[in-house]
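Lab notebook, bench 4. The sequencing result for the construct came back, and we need a structural model before the next group meeting so we can plan mutations. Quick request posted to the team channel:

Model the 3D structure of this chain.
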Amino acid sequence: MWWIVWLVICIASVVLEAASPQLTSIWFALGGLAALITSFIKPDLWWLQLLIFVIVSAAALAATRPLAKKLLSKKAERMNADRFIDEEAVVVQKISNVLGEGQVKSKGTIWSAKTEDENETVDVGETVVIKRIEGVKVIVKKKERTEQ
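Done. Here's the predicted structure in token form:
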């Protein structure tokens, strides 16, 4: 009768795995399968079946979990626009937060822009540094001038 228990564990583990976006129970399905096979070979030794289940599940977990975790981990992907952050840009339309206007050009792309400081204005031709992107606007800061 133990083969029914192992079959249920196998099926439940596979169903749970299919319903989950991450690897959560596939190891128990492998252990259940090994115990199921053992239950047909040695039907009266339930403790051996349990031992096989635990050993196979633990071995499968130890062997595959680090690799699975590495492959399934979601890394933060930089967006295409992120390449503009901390880059220089040239002001092509005067930036005035009060008037809600201003544009900069960086790497051949023109962006609507505003400054970090709400009261600051930046004239055409000045160089700024893009600090962040909010929606479709870049937030800029005047580039510090270095004395030579």
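Helices lie at 2-19, 26-41, 46-72.
Will bring this to the meeting.
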